[in-house]
Amino acid sequence: MYRVNEIFYTLQGEGAHSGIPAVFVRFSGCNLKCPWCDTEFADYTEMSAEQIVKEMLCSYDTPNERRKMCVLTGGEPSLQVDKELIDALHTAGFYICIETNGTRPLPDGIDWITCSPKAGEPPEALNHAVDRLALKKVNEVKVVFTGTYDPEVWRKKLEAEHWMLQPLRYNGEWLLMSGIDDFEIDSNDNLDDTVRYILAHPFWRLSVQLHKIAGLR
Q1: Nearest CA among 154, 172, 171 for reference residue 163
Q2: What is the pLDDT of residues 154-203, one digit of tens each?
Q3: Residues that are catalytic
Q4: Domains and their CATH numbers in the chain
């Protein structure tokens, strides 16, 4: 049985697949606690692989499409996703994407791996987060840009086809980051800083939260 927070059909709002329709399966639980996390994933319903696939197919508006995309997310989906679920999703015709913090190994068979590495919270330092990466090669790396450290540190540890930099969006809160003093970020300034960084480091691409701009889930 898997602990599932929610299943819903929407557009992928971030990264290289931005704008593509997908069924999202949000799993409950995470092994990190990041200060900027805006996702509610604590609640859950226990479901079998068969039940998950059935609800996914019901939520998909066009079940006869040749390529049905799903996104396994969380929380941290690697805490639960296994070969049984991967096989069930492929049998149902899904192209499987996963969004992971990269700290745990993944089962074989996932079609697209997005690693969004995180530093967690104090007292863990950023270098500890880099050292504990369990993945070496992924399809996409998506880094939250805070301006407090150089995201090039992840490029030294991961091999990927796409490198996405995403500005930090905040709700007027004070943020606690590993190894630095308290600071406050203005979201507009952060976006400008992210754009400036990418212009100076064109290996990266800008990723914005399209779903929030469009008012989607």
Answers
A1: 154
A2: 888 899 999 999 887 644 333 333 333 344 444 456 888 899 999 999 99
A3: 24, 30, 34, 37-39, 99, 211
A4: 2-213 (3.20.20.70)
